[in-house]
Write a structure and sequence with these properties.
This protein is an alpha+beta fold. It has 8 helices and 8 strands, in the order ααααββααααββββββ. The longest helix has 25 residues.
Length: 274
Amino acid sequence: MKQIHKAWYKRWWGIVIAIITLPLFALWYVWTKLERSKVFRVSIIAALLVVYAGGAISLAHALPSPLTARDTSTKPTLTTQPTTSPNVTKDSVVATQPSTTPQTTPKTTVTSTSTSTTNTPTITPSVQPTAPTAPQTPTQQYPDTYPSKWSSAPLDTVIDTWNMSNRESTSYTAWKVNEAFGNMPTTWGGANATNWPTEAQNAGIPTGTTPKVHSVAIISAGQHGASAAGFSAWIEAINGDQVTISAYNYGGPTYSVSTVSASLFSTYIYFGGN
C-alpha cells in the first residue's frame, strides 16, 4: 500500500508555525497551493498586501511616537496654586503647624509656545503658636487658701482665731470673710452655722435670699442633710440659679469646690454689704 504523507502545514507543529507566520503563510499558500490561474492568484496576493499595509498604518497611528511623547514631557501644563496665609488673631491657635522659616512660592506663567517662569517670592510670616491651656479643675480655679496650720491638723483638734474648731465649715467661712473683708466677729452663735443669720442681723450685717459672690451661704439645721449645727459655705461664682461654692466638711472634712442649686441655701450673709 502506498504511504500517504501529510503536508507539513497539516501537522500539529506545522499548524503552530502557520499561525505564528500567518501573513507570510497566507501569501505562500495562495501562490503555491491555490489551484487557480496566475492572474487570480496575483490579485489575491495584491489584496492581502493592501490589507497588511492598512493594518500596519492603523497600528502606527495607534501607538504614540517616541518623539511626540518626549516633546509632550518637555512642555507640561503648569497650574500654580495660590499661596494663602492663615488668618491669625490674638489668643487663637492655628490648627496647622506654621513654618518656622519664610517660604518662597514661584509664580509660573505658561504660554502656548514657551514656558517662562518669573520668581516672585511670597513671604509667609512665621507665626509662633500659642500652646493651648488645659481647662482648670474647680479646685485649681478656686484654690484652697485656708491656713495649713489648720488644714493639716486632724479635724476638731485646733481652735482657730475666731474660737471655732479647725476644718469645720464655719472655721473655713470665717477665714474667707476675714480674708476678703477683715470683719469676721469672734465666737458667733457658738460656732454653729445655723445661728449665723441671727447673729448677723443683731450685728447689723445684711442678709437675704439672693446669692452674691463672696457672700456666706447658710443651710439651716436639719435641712438638706445638714446636722443640728447647720452648714456654711463661701460663694465663689454665680451662674443663673446655680452657685459655685468652696467649703470644708462638705461631704468630708477636706476642701472642696462644688456647683449646686442656689435654693439649697436658706440664707445668704453679705459681710461686704448690700
